[in-house]
Amino acid sequence: MRNLVSSSLLICLLLLASCAPGITKGFRKATSMHVQKEAFYPFFPAADSVLLFNMQIDFGKNHFSGILLVKSTGKDRYRTVFTSHFGMSVFDFEVDSDSFRVNYCLEALHKKRFLQILEADFSALLFLNPETDGSLSDIYVNDAASGLEVIKAGKYYYLKNKVSETLIAIEAPQPVNARRYRFSDYKDKFPALIQIQHSHIGLKMQLERINRE
Amino acid sequence: MFYYRKPDKICLDYQKPVKYLIVINGDKIRVDSDGKTNTYDLGRNKMMSQINVLISACMTGDIDKLSSAYSLTVNENDRQYLVGVLPSGSAKSYMKSIDIYLDKKDFSVQKLKITEPSDDYTEYEFTAKKKNPLIPDAKFSVK
Q: SS3 helix, strand, coil % of chain B, rounded to 5?
């Protein structure tokens, strides 16, 4: 009986160890400290401006594509509108650190689970998660690549490049709700390509910035 | 600029406020922006495909393409016909109405107003129209 319990415990420990987020591979925990939002290199501007993106949503065999508009409507408050290429609204949300308001959503997408996913994604991308503002966070360093650093704030891991002062990726490695965000092709400190993956449900989203001339 | 070739090719070439190109050719859509090209298969989303077919038909005045899921009303003034397209059934969930303004002189589309269930709307106005110009095939390429 004792052997059975020990074996079960060992298997559980092995399983938990194998669930360590891939983003920390090659890193070791160095310290814990209070970290302000600026340390995460947030890239969405606070000023009253409208950002445009080509957005694609792939969910199983379904595909939505169109234009995403993101506008800051106040301190840490944003409005996000996704339209088809012809201008028809697909969804229209207002999001801040305390709330997520659905102004409109196509009936086909107006499902509680999907809205929860979008709320979490926009909160992460717009750095509205409360853990990114002053919380005690674990800092991971990479001895082979000193310019890289991972910050664990709450349930999110942020991989950043301290040399270029850019955010490379965010991971939330939960057993059932794991998600990954990748940021690349930076221009003027803003990623021209943002990729979001919810591998457990086969949902992928991609944002490509559209520059105004 | 707006280009159309029967039966199913449309090109929307935006210059302001951003340079943005949309080409629909059959069931494929190509989007060019910032030097990047993305091509999508409209068949992968039945609802979006229906929306695109509907709006394409209304843009070109080819309302024969509309299925029985839509009812039509027609009004007129001395210069224009106003065709009101009212969706029924599931289409009502994403579209409240479409108003097509046709020039009485040549029945070409002058204005198109798409109203959503929230009463938000998108309006297209067609000016400086040219009929049957020579348009290169490359204008409608989705490759």
A: 20, 45, 35
The CA distance from B80 to B74, in Å, is 10
On whether the CB atoms of residues B33 and B20 are closer than 8 A, the answer is: yes
Query: Which residue type does B119 have?
Result: D
Task: Identify the H or E element spanning B53.
Answer: helix B46-60
Q: Which of B22, B20, B42 lies closest to B30 in space, CA to CA?
A: B22
**DSSP letter, residue A24:** G
Q: What is the pTM of this model?
A: 0.85
Question: Does any CB of chain B come closer than 8 Å to the CB of residue A195?
Answer: no
Q: Which of B13, B29, B45, B95 to mutate to test the interface with A (most CBs of A within 10 A)?
A: B45
Distance from CA of A40 to the nearest CA of B (A): 27
**CATH second-level architecture of A23-210?**
Clam (2.50)
Contacts of A103 in chain B (CB under 8 A): 118
- Other CB atoms within a 10 A radius of the CB of residue A41 amount to 19
User: ipTM greater than 0.85, yes or no?
Assistant: no
pLDDT in tens, B86-143: 988 777 888 899 999 999 999 899 999 999 988 999 999 999 988 888 899 999 999 8
